Amino acid sequence: MSDNESRCPFQTQQFGRPVDDNQHSQTAGPRGPMLMQDVHLVEKMAHFNRERIPERVVHAKGYGAFGTFTVTNDISKYCMADLFSEVGKKTEMFARFSTVGGESGSADSARDPRGFALKFYTDQGVWDLVGNNTPIFFIRDPLKFSDFIRTQKREPQSHLKPHWRRWDFWGEVPEALHQVMFLYSDRGTPKSARFMNGYGSHTFSIYNRDGVRHWVKFHFKTEQGVENFSDDEAIEMAGKAPDYSTRDLFDAIESGDYPRWKLSIQMMPESDAENYKWHPFDLTKVWPHDDYPLIEVGVMELNRNPSNYFQDVEQAAFEPGNLVDGIGISPDRMLQNRVLSYPDAHRYRLGVNYHQVPVNTPRCPYATYHRDGQMRVDGNGGGSVDYEPNKMNGPKETGHRFEPPMPVHGDGRRYDEFSCDDEDYFGQPRLFWNKVLDEGARERLCTAIANSMGDSPESIREKMLQQFAAVSDEFAKSVSNKLEEPADEPIPIA
Ligand code: NDP
After folding, report:
1. pTM for the complete prediction?
2. Atom of ligand 1 at shortest distance to CA of 432?
3. What totals of helices (H) and strands (E) does the chain contain, helices first?
4. What is the C-alpha to C-alpha distance for residues 185 and 180, in angstroms, rounded to an integer?
């Protein structure tokens, strides 16, 4: 609430005139028609008609909280970012969690990846790490992104969400299988944000003041332990408590039970990228821990609920291109595309001055030459000079170039530089099946897949069964057998 609003003991119209009656519209006589001169009524209805801003096209259902990141291990010799500068250093932050495919009113318990978006208000500017609860994704080339997302959304004629559309797409895109297996495993239905891990997912870079770069992956492991809903629980929650996870985080923080996640990184020397057995910039792959062990960095704690959902959560604008000195991107195609498309989406949803929304505003001093645009309300630079270079004492560039150059080579054209052999598509899914899942988890994975594939035509099932067989005969056989049985109701699509 603004200061003026909190000081006002009675209701007013939006320009301050006291409201004498908020129960009865002006009419011609007690039973007569309305009068157009009732500006209070018109203002009320006109504002109401404009209350909704465009929903996020993905990650529309979300909730968030403020918190603190604290460094517990010194990585400053690898990364010059201010927020990692010394053990004990604290940085204010904000987190938003979400499902991906559902509308803003959809159920929290849907089988869907979860967004895990973090905003750090560092002394050098805002750093956003906009990840998921999985270290990988379905695709590795952004040219496929809008097609993939449509398969998770509503069918054009019926406005329904049949499951076969996703299997149709995945059947043609074998690099998706790794993430498909994560999605239909137990971790596809996390109990709430408090009980899931988060990952930066892409390969990023860090560098020090000497210009030495490492490629990195960011991992946030929940200190509450991983907990998931079973299929039955998730379906029940979708009806009984569709906002279960939203409430879970809010109530935990209100009661002082602050959730925490430990941040670790995997670090790859820059030169390893050329010859590493897995493509290090392929978003459908992890880096095995044996090759690149986790190195502890710090702990994030969420300890303050937003005071207003729309202001702080609905208008929170995360963007992977919000970086600070010491942290950079990588050639990961998906990441490069997100660097452009996130701010594009924010300008559409929130307008060009979205940096003024308090949750998005840097906490450190900042000075740009941007001026004007819709809803510019922060002084707009006052009378200060609005072009650069100038001799008017306007803010100057620093001249400090810390980020080492990114070597690039080759002709510009459309490449398939991924190896695209069976090992590329199925090697890590096989490791997941053989090494990570126990017998019970494999059984539940196959059941969840078969339930979801129940409405798929034979040609789509065939395509998917071939992929499962490439991972393991046992996997294909188990799904195939379950497809012969009457299917249970799958968890509704988000
Ligand atoms: P590790 O045995 O060292 O790690 C396996 C990882 O799997 C752990 O991080 C574990 O997370 C996670 N995990 C356990 N159950 C599930 C599940 N149902 N869904 C998703 N993740 C789960 O193995 P490697 O590093 O050698 O990797 C082997 C395979 O494990 C990979 O091919 C990949 O499929 C999967 N994996 C690897 C990750 C990585 O970053 N290396 C991360 C996640 C999965 P936790 O420790 O929290 O229990």
Report:
1. 0.96
2. 34
3. 13, 10
4. 9
